[in-house]
Structure prediction request, 252 residues.
Amino acid sequence: GAGNVVTVEVDGAVAQRARSALRASGAPVRVVHGDGFRKFPEGAPYDRIVVTCGLRSLPFAWVRQARPGAVIVAPWGTHYSNADAISRLVVAEDGRSASGAFAGPVEFMKLRSQRLPPVEHRAYVPDTVAVGEETASAVTEEAFTGGRFGAGRFALGLRVPACVNVVAEKRDGARPVWFYGLTDRSWACAMFRDGDTARVWQSGPRRLWDEAEAALAWWEKRGRPGHERFGLALTEAGQSAWLDDPADSWEV
Prediction:
């Protein structure tokens, strides 16, 4: 019943409005003004944990505060883009992990503590792209950018870690796509132009375009899998992603 439900809200004004609305509806839900990332031990153990903000890293505290067999549902993605998906994790019987496949794509407001500051372009490229190494690529704009809720960018985010991808607006038949490294000042830019081969510039210890191109080839070789073929696992040591087989996972 509603008396066993706890909702946690970080914004005090929103929490107060929630209390008023719930009181008016006659639902005895407990509203806590606090950080939901830490969960709320006082109400544990929980059968269901439903998260309504986008995450980049799931806290193991949620597994600790859930019953074996409990379900944790949360929007999740990488810093690569806003192309998130709904993760549905089931807590293991021994309570030491939670895992499950993704559902469909989604976009949520990000958890405040996990939002990245805007990329300072000039900190990466103070002059022009001409300072980078120039190559060409046969990858097409459509294959790389895909639709807003397509699985491609989500998959690339799983395979190109610690990177922010920015797809600029298209002007006069040209669209630049940028890559910024989060652990150093590596950067790349792919310029897609209608009717022409893409030009690429990249610089830094990492070759970010090469990584992205390889990730795209990996995704296409496996039949361009949708969100539902990917999964996420959470343990005290961290989180890992997998495609089709949970035993074949990698750290994310």
